[in-house]
Batch of 4 targets.
Target 1
Amino acid sequence: GIVALATHAAAVAHELNTPLATMLLTLEELEERDDVPGTLDEDVALLHSLADTCRQRVRELARAGMATEGIDPEQVIERWRLLRPAVELSRTGILAPGTRIDAAAGHLIQALLDNAADASLAAGNTRVDLEADANGVRGEIRDHGKGFDPQRSFLPGRLFDSGKPGGLGLGLALSHATVERLGGELNLHAVESGGARVSFRLPPRITVRP
């Protein structure tokens, strides 16, 4: 299922590149027009930024198989903040300046943050907690959602099986597959006061030296 999904994702990336380029061009024209109400300036700028982020992600996906230089985890987190402006991210631990990690590890962090954000927002909470060590090798992400029955097994996640309304059922399964491929560990813990904590530990080799 993961291999089939990857093949389909590559095809979708190819298909999305052109419409995203058209959207960016249209938004640039809107930003330059004088007849657009000033009250819409911020909305148009936000849409432009989001469309540009989506196009960058599509291009990264197209180059994923050849990427060797690693990515900046801080950029991953900041890009996630842009895509999820309604979520308050509380951070513990400062990543070492210049740290670069395997691209797959960056995707893992973003997927876990997305899952946590969805769980928190579904419970009427906007907070997500992120704790990471200096090199991004170990981390923990906590949501403030309704939590889950600790007797139920969630790991490994099953592809396309989601407990969220409208969920795609990809986040947990892909996260587990990524950690497994990188040779790390992924654990899910219930929090007594509500919510869940997902902790991950990855081998030091995911840190890419410039």
Target 2
Amino acid sequence: MSSILIVGYGSHTKRRILPALDTINNLDNIFITSRNNPSDISKNYEYLNKEEIIKNNMNFDAVIISSYPSVHIENFEHFKNCSNLFLIEKPITNDLLYLDGDDFYNNFQDYQIKECLMYFHHPVYDEFLKVIRDNKIDSLEASLTIPHIEKNNHRYSKNLGGSSILDQGIYPISLILENFEIINDSINYQMFFENLYEIDTGGELFCETNEGTQVNLKWGIGYEYSNNVKVFSGKSCFEFPMFFSKPENHISKYYVKKSEKIKSYEIGNHDQFNNMYKDIIVNNMNFDYQDYKNLKSRYDFIGMLLND
């Protein structure tokens, strides 16, 4: 019997986290806490008052933090004696200076802090790994861009942790840093801002890997939707649509284009949130992207782009 505490009851928790947890047989008790006592929580879950959890020394097999990025670490500190496993929605924090301190390193090790980059747990990522392993890669393109959303959304608020590079850019950036070694002198990038918004609204990055692969990344909010990875090797192009994020009931495919011929390979319908929770919470699997060194490198890289 496993018990899970979810901190935060916003749309992401309702749409993606709870449905993914519901289908895992090993999870028997799902609890929710939030700033307010919501009236629409299903009878399948139990609401817990934040103070009562601490007062009663309650313990959970895992805590999933799905709040505003600006309070992720605050929520972790509040509940850190309640579990030895914490899954924090990306970005793990918008306070990049905090990640430089000893407190974060010690907490990361002692409490098994994990950042929820769920695309690493989808079978399409395994197919991507086979492609870059079995072919000499000439170039790679990856993008995640979305149209503008409601202006009062927290993604536009700097105080709440809004930032395009932390919300969209972290996906293509993490993909490259996890699988390639970048030549620092080759990095060329632009960060985009709009007068109407207080955050960075997008960016582009060009670089070269130590094996000679040319990399082109793009991310942003306020653009035509894109969510794909393309890998070029000789006369072949391997195209992975809907790579980073997938809607519910999406049938994943990828395509191999060579000359005038196109072959499609169906991967099927997989819930990458469900896969991630099973991998980390139930099966206790370890992944390179969750190592302290890799996570720190990810945010050092993002910090360099943000602060230059």
Target 3
Amino acid sequence: HGQHSLRTLQELAHAYQYIVCDCTRIKNRITALFRARAIAYRGDAHFRAENRNQWLAKLEPAVQLRTQLLFAQLDALLPLRAQAEKALVKEARKHEAFSLISSIPYLGDIRTALILSVMLTPFRFRSKRPLWCYCGFAVVTSTSADYKLVNGIIIKTNKHSFTRGLNHNFNRTLKNVFKSAANAANSGVFKQYYDALLAKGMKDNLARLSLARKIASITL
């Protein structure tokens, strides 16, 4: 609020995320044209400007114009994405928390800017557990058939609650930020923490979840 408002950063974060989604959508459409015709590709080779003519030659003439229009859309969006990213990071650097959060390994400038635009202030969360729930890292338990009919009387059963995965009401931006940071942790203290969990017999997906929780807790 007032001079401490993060409204500008929030709007820039929305703009950046929208453009990223648009770029991904166009890339998926281009990829679908090649996959539908069983044309093999590797990585992002079919998106590169220097290779487009040879990739277009593999398509029938009726599809080439359609693909060229999609490439033109992608070429128009990529500079806008770079511009939005630059403006987002520039605005985020104005806040004191930026240098502190960006010092955490594998967060980086973009993830830090997105964290600031969503969390706003750490005082929203009393502890790390509400933050885990907000990020979609909270374990959900549920039960069914809690009561049964015995001799015409409804009584409660002794069934225990069962784990049903993670909570579904969460902030998608924060979950993506911390999950991607956990998946990118391939060295350093976070990798040691992850390897220690695997050594104890924990499954890979649960170890990644624990690492994402750890990064979120450190950020808070």
Target 4
Amino acid sequence: MLHYSHGKDILQNLINYDFFLAFRGGEDIFYFMPGLRYFSAFNNILFGETTYGYLILCTFIPFVIFKIFKKLINNKIAIILFISFIFIPIFENMGFGFFNYIWQFARHHAESLSILFLLYAFYLLISITKELDKNKPIFLLGLFLSMSVFLRPNFLPTTFIFFTLTFFILTFRRDYKNLILNILGYSLISISLIHNLYFGNSAILFTKA
């Protein structure tokens, strides 16, 4: 309820053209997860006083998982794992069960949205390792990694590994344009630090917690 309440306050500040308070997000220095409050405000703009936007995004998690396994293995195995993920959660203790993510959505926690961004970034990473396709949205790869951390800072180690691997792949290929785009996308990981410096005069990287 606190995350949702912060989102409502942000939206009200936007309506009142008080962008300073809207960006503040209810705290001078973040204690709770930073990003979900801003997503909640955006959700309320589109869907009113509901969480339908979050629910719709959660439905994409199985499809991203399907695309990942299709890239890594083959279409047949990907379909089997897709069905298992939704209906037969035999690996639910390892996080491979859709109801876990729906339960986190129902509690209005940030895990499900953060993991969606992380999974899609992983899919893009797999794509550039398997294909010499320079049209892949490399900026989105870096951006989704940073947004994943903005929602759940404890995903920093995982995202940093993905970012570093992407950095070396693009450097090896001398694809400097996409290298810069990837760095720019991931640089948004500093949003929480900028917020805490500006409002709380404290160099806390993510949250006090």
